Amino acid sequence: MPRWHVGVFRGRRGAPQAVQEPLFEIELRPERRYYRQILQALTSILMDGDQLRAEVAVSRVLGVIWASDPGRDGGAEEAFGRGLVEFAVHASRTSRQGSRQVVAPAAANLLRVLAATAAVREVREAAATALAVRHWPAHPWDPPVGQVAIGRCWVVEDAFGDHATILCEFEYGEDPGTAVRHGIAVHVDRVAQGAAVDVTLVDDVDAAELELRLGADHADDEFRRVEPGWAGAVLEQAMARTDLLPTIPVAPGFAQLRALTLARVRSLPVSTLELVHGPASSYWPTPHAAPAGAPGQREAIIAEFCRSQEASALSSVELLTVVRLAGLLVEFASLIDPADLLRVSPGRIEAFLFDWLPAALRSEPAGPESLTSASVAAARAVDSVAPADVAAVVRVWTAWAARQGGTPLLTRDALARAVEEILGEYVREG
User: Fold this and answer.
1) Cα(255)–Cα(56) distance, rounded to whole angstroms?
2) How far is it, in rounded angstroms, from Cα 253 to Cα 230?
3) Domain count across the chain
4) What backbone torsions phi and psi does residue 405 show, to the nearest 5 degrees?
């Protein structure tokens, strides 16, 4: 069984960028020989009766293009996909039998898979239009590719709210006794603005569900069954955020299953579920972003923290430094989850220390209005603070915020252990 998810704070910073082992030497050039190589390599898969196998093969090809585009804006995918559609239409009439042209079945099946699986809408529409304009050979799939029946959906979430894994079941065929079932498991990193960062294709859905529910790696996680509409709404947003925030790292296998996952998400029911706030324009927004929270709320939180019993242990750190570091912690919380400024977790602490705080310290005011930014002033004030003092404040803030937020005692113990590990690394790298 694959390890469905790991603690976000462990190795998230060092997670590899999207890596895709290419099936072919693909270059983003509209030369027919590249498309010909792709069609030739896919012919045997496109001609057998396994719909899922054909979808995975085409998804892997499209994943090569997605992974090669650092902007993730869909431009390269659309150009490549349209070129592949045009080549398939041309290739479908290049073979001859006597004096009569014969439509190549593999090219027709490639168009069918693209119409169902391509990530870019314009490519799917181009393939569907090509299929509609003339008669094509019969496809080898029953039911047709992409026409899946929706099964059960589940979600497992860690105790800190850092990450979740959503597993959805699908099948080709209406008879549950004979239909071939498969699942798509998507790992959502909520600290990274709720983006999808990993995808797994599941062969044995029952075993996967059992592992998510009872596996040792999920002993402290919350597991529940969810409606397909809820799963679809969450996954649609998560997959979109991965593209919208191109600096977010994804797992090596994400690219090759991305198009297939998007196709399955499109098959889920439409939901009007109101989801969490949208992502900012960059992975870790700088302190120049507009602060969240009611007027005075942030100042009240900082003042209450400084008066707390936990903060009394910070006698070795200057009060001004404590206040300013607390302000930066609240500032970061307002960007990650403005609805809950006291929520703490290992993933959030790691992101604050290693991703956001260094950027805040490097940030320069962009204009006269920025010169009065309290957050920028605070960042500059702690620029010279020793890492040990930063760690001391973060340690105490975590304990205080967890108590204020009503975190269960056992969860607080796990949080303290995880944060201590993160702080040790932070001080060593200091």
Assistant:
1) 11
2) 25
3) 3
4) -85, 0
